[in-house]
Amino acid sequence: MRCHILAGLIVVVASGLPYLAYAESPEEKGLAIANEGDRRDQGFADSSVKLEMILSNRHGESSTRELRMKTLEIMDPTLGDKSLTIFDHPRDIKGSAFLSFTRIKEPDEQWLYLPALKRVKRISSANKSGPFMGSEFSYEDLASQEVEKYTYKWLRDEACGDLQCFVVEQYPVYENSGYTKRIAWIDQREFRPWKIEFYDRKDALLKTMTFKNYKQYLNKFWRSHEMFVENHLTGKSTVLRFKDFVLQAGLDDRDFNRNALSRVR
To answer: What is the C-alpha separation between 245 and 48, in angstroms, rounded?
Structure first.
């Protein structure tokens, strides 16, 4: 697979068949970049991974959590992926579980089970900007990032470390989004995000997410093994470290059942 960027012309060659997407405007080019990144990640089917979450405040005090995440790829173009997150440590939140069904044209469906309350709570569509389990990730951030959930505008090309990146503005279509826009740095070689800036409803920079330690699986799918989110308003931060990625593990819809959320292990 090869990708060339020449004066707004995106040329992708896959399996010997050329595909040309001519982007005349910044909006068309931004959308073409998003579509290409999405195309390259199609076909992973499902995945599971273990995570370490480190929460830090502005004083440098931190706490650590251990969790697992499962993802199911949904190929229906009207729907998005499904994900299940389960907390294993510390003891006071062990067994907490979060289930997310991404939707394209409708609000995402999300549920949270807290053992202390012994009930499943549905996350309101108007409350997706709230913090997830005390972290700097919002519920909105945890939904799969489908292309159709944003409109796009290419801003410029610039260096990002040793790579060359597209810089693209992304505007949420969802009216209850906690963000007015995101600005993403996406490398031109593999179309991987390296940095995303999030702007709040006052259009002020709220937080920055960076990605590190990419590894490739099944000779195709790139996964970051460390994500860092810094909240510029509060000074708080969250680190996610990933290990033991397994793709195409054989998961199906039965592994993402909201009626069994209180019994997941």
So the answer is: 6
User: What residues make up the domain containing 121?
Assistant: 2-263
Model confidence band, residue 96 (pLDDT cutoffs 50, 70, 90) = very high
Q: What are phi and psi of 254, to 5 degrees?
A: -65, -20
CATH code at 47? 2.50.20.10
The two tokens of residue 158 are 């610039």
Q: Mean pLDDT over residues 172-187, rounded?
A: 94
Per-residue pLDDT at 129: 87
Closest CA to 182 of 107, 129, 111: 129
DSSP one-letter code for 44? -
| Domains of the chain: total | 1
Q: How many residues does the chain have?
A: 265
User: Is residue 38 within 8 Å of residue 147, measured between CB atoms?
Assistant: yes
Which bin fits 158, alpha (ψ -120 to 50), beta or left (φ > 0)? beta
